[in-house]
Amino acid sequence: MSRNHKDKYENSNPRRTHTFMSTEDANSGKKSYWPELEITGSIRNLSPNLWQLTHLTALYLNDNSLQRIPSEIGRLVNLRALDLSSNKLRSLPAELGDLIYLRELLLNQNYLRVLPYELGKLFQLQVLGLQGNPLSKEIMALYGEPSGTHKLLSYMLDNLQVL
């Protein structure tokens, strides 16, 4: 028995669908002002509307199946904490470096082999989680030193090419 095209894209588990705001509220210009948002549970895709929540100060996207983070994450300029741990990320957008107020960036347990040099612009970053990634020995050696986060970010900034 084959499924028709429409069924393929319909959500078979309505409990897994959550609406941030009704269509009527969104169309009327109503805004949401939650300071923190947690989206976990094997999510593979994120709504483009997420990147419009520029007031967020904390975003927890850990324990999902995300393979990429779009460059639009750079719009979330007020973020102080970002947890992308336990996903399937192989790369990160350079726009993460635009999140200049970020104090905590957790990237543990992904498939990251490299980090964007733009992370060196995160001068307020205090906590950086990189465990469980196949990063180069050079990066992990810097990270493992005392004051490793600071040394790694300085290295990234030094290697950032100015265009």
UniProtKB/TrEMBL annotation:
It comes from the Eukaryota. GO terms for cellular component: cytoplasm. Gene3D superfamilies: Ribonuclease Inhibitor. SMART domains: LRR_TYP. Pfam families: LRR_8 (PF13855). Keywords: Leucine-rich repeat, Repeat. InterPro entries: Leu-rich_rpt (IPR001611), Leu-rich_rpt_typical-subtyp (IPR003591), LRR_dom_sf (IPR032675), LRR_domain-containing (IPR050216). Residues 1-27 are annotated as: Disordered. Residues 11-27 have a biased composition (Polar residues). PANTHER family: PTHR48051, RAS SUPPRESSOR PROTEIN 1. This is CCR4-NOT transcription complex subunit 6-like. It comes from Frieseomelitta varia.
